[in-house]
Design goal:
binds 2'-deoxycytidine-5'-monophosphate, 9 helices, 3-stranded antiparallel β-sheet
Length: 204
């Protein structure tokens, strides 16, 4: 079974997807970590992002290992975040990473998190969730995570949101059959319980 969790940055995707995977005994796929790893490779080694994406050897687990190197912490820095949003506009970068994601999702039970899981990567996913939250709440959550001022985060987030939503290839959209959940005033536990309940109903 594949559960797709899509939505903008700061909607709570990672926290919810991780907790949900744990609760259900599914494997968690962080597709954003792939875009981030390509961005880091481009920043460190230069070269063509498409080639970097095609060459990327990635292990996703407790740690993110890209091309043999532990990049878990480095891929969360602001410069990598910014570059990830830029490399993610390229359709050939996306094609290379989508192929890797589909290979993983082909067997087993997954909670896959990203922007285009329900629309492009796994359009046949049994359960599709689109998480949202108010821009202010999303910025506050991100700011707390990285120890920054939330107004600064909000400004950068607005720019990245526009970049992610307006790009030509796989813009951020909810799949028509996705269930939209607004997490603004809800706890992680509450949201996870709701999605786990939906998954259980489907499995019956
Ligand atoms: O979810 P995240 O912040 O780790 O994602 C990093 C960047 O990668 C973000 O700009 C959106 C992009 N991304 C994407 O385009 N498609 C995905 N499936 C996952 C992430």
């Amino acid at each position: 079974m594949v559960i797709a969790i899509d939505g903008p940055a700061g909607a709570g995707k990672s926290t919810v997807a991780r907790a949900l995977a744990e609760k259900l005994g599914f494997t968690y796929l962080d597709s954003g970590a792939m875009y981030r790893s390509v961005a880091l490779a481009v920043l460190e080694q230069g070269g063509d992002p498409v080639t970097r994406a095609q060459e990327l050897q990635i292990e996703l687990g407790e740690r993110v290992i890209a091309n043999g190197k532990d990049v878990t912490t480095e891929i969360r820095t602001p410069r990598v975040t910014e570059m990830a949003s830029r490399v993610a506009v390229d359709k050939d970068v996306r094609a290379a990473l989508v192929a890797k994601q589909r290979e993983l999702l082909a067997s087993g039970d997954w909670v896959a998190e990203g922007r285009d899981i329900g629309t492009v990567v796994a359009p046949d996913a049994e359960l599709k969730i689109f998480l949202t939250a108010s821009p202010e709440q999303r910025a506050r959550r991100r700011a707390a995570e990285i120890g920054a001022d939330w107004r600064t985060v909000l400004r950068d987030q607005t720019l990245r949101d526009a970049q992610d939503a307006n790009r030509e290839h796989s813009p951020l959209r909810a799949a028509p059959d996705a269930i939209e959940i607004d997490t603004t005033d809800r706890t992680v536990e509450d949201v996870v319980t709701q999605i786990a309940g939906l998954a259980r109903e489907l499995r019956r």
